[in-house]
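It is worth pausing here to work through a concrete case rather than discussing structure prediction in the abstract. The textbook approach is simple: state the sequence, then state the predicted structure, then interpret. We follow exactly that order.
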Amino acid sequence: MIQGVRLIQLQNETPPADAHRRLPATRRVLRTADIDIICFTFSPGQVLGDHHVGHPIIVHCLSGCIGFLVEGHSIRLTAGSILHLDAGITHHLSCPEPSTETAVILLTHLKHDRRTPS
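Step two, the predicted structure:
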């Protein structure tokens, strides 16, 4: 390996879906001083309710479809979509039913920037 370089094969890091759980399956892919990358696998009907974080995030939909609710606005993420949220913005995620397809997202926490919106 090259010092300071990390290669991650996402196909080996994606957590398997578990439709029997209330929440999506998660797996931390990478943690450094500046970023935290977490992979989520949603089964249809699973919800990650209202929450916010103290730093900006980037959400990349890798497969399927995720419904994002941000300040009363509905945003649909599909494979290849990327969404950026500033720190402190309340949001809600769900994998819509009656879909039979799981949805996989990659969440990047940008920990170096802890600003909150004014």
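Step three, interpretation. The first helix runs from residue 10 to 13. The chain has a mean pLDDT of 91.
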